[in-house]
Structure formats: C-alpha cells, structure tokens
Amino acid sequence: MDELTLDEAMEELVSAEDFLGYFGIEYDPAVVHVNRLHILQRFHDYLGKAPLPQAEDGRRAAYATLLRQAYLDFVQSDALTEKVFRVFHMHEPQVKFVPVSSISLSKPK
C-alpha cells in the first residue's frame, strides 16, 4: 500500500487493525477486538473536528495522531464511559400519562 496516495490507501482500509497498521500505531489486539467500531467512530469524529493540512504528508501525520488518540481513548477508558455512539446518549424511556377520560371508543355505524 506504500505506492498508493493517502486517499487511495484510506479507501482500501477496512478494519481498525488495517488503519492502525497502516499508520504504524502499536496496539493491544485485545483492546482493539473489544472496541474496534468505537475506535473507528472516534477517529471519524476527530477527523470531522480537526483542521487538516492540505499537503498529503501533513494530513498523514494528522491522521496518525488522531487515530492514535482515538485508540488511546479506549486503552484508558471503555465504551460505556466514552459513549461514542448515539445510542449511549439516549435518555431513559419516557413514561407518558394518558388520563382515562381522554380515551374514547367510537363504535362503527
């Protein structure tokens, strides 16, 4: 993959292990196995917020830094604490009160 541009390589990478390997980031397979989707989503979130250089070498370095941070987030914490996915931000089910007086039956005519 060394002969590919950064954009081409990014299109070829499919797993967290692929990304970490491509950017030369050492990782614990046990951490990645449990958190792979969370790591990739956090990396995506970081990319969306960071100002990225136009030059490919600068972007490559920025991507590596952001991916390393995304991985370390889950080395130092866990998915329940980090709450990467929207489902973790949902509130408890809401209980709605419907008074009996508001319920009516309409009989077919």
How would you characterize this protein structure?
The protein is mainly alpha-helical and 109 residues long. It has one domain (6-102). The protein is built from five helices and no strands. It has helices at 6-12, 16-22, 29-49, 56-76, 79-82. Helix 3 (29-49) packs across helix 4 (56-76). The protein is elongated.
Give the SSE map:
Elements: H1 6-12, H2 16-22, H3 29-49, H4 56-76, H5 79-82
Helix pairs in contact: 3-4
Number of strands: 0
Rg over alpha carbons: 22 Å
Number of domains: 1
Structural class: mainly alpha
Strand content: under 5%
- Describe the global form: elongated
Overall mean confidence score, pLDDT: 83
How would a crystallographer describe the biggest sheet? none
SSE pattern: HHHHH
Low-confidence stretches: none
Helix content: 55-70%
The number of helical runs is: 5
Give keywords.
0% strand, 55% helix, 109 residues, single chain, mainly alpha
Question: Short summary of the structure?
Answer:
Helix content is 55%, strand content 0%. By secondary structure, it is mostly helical. It has one domain (6-102).
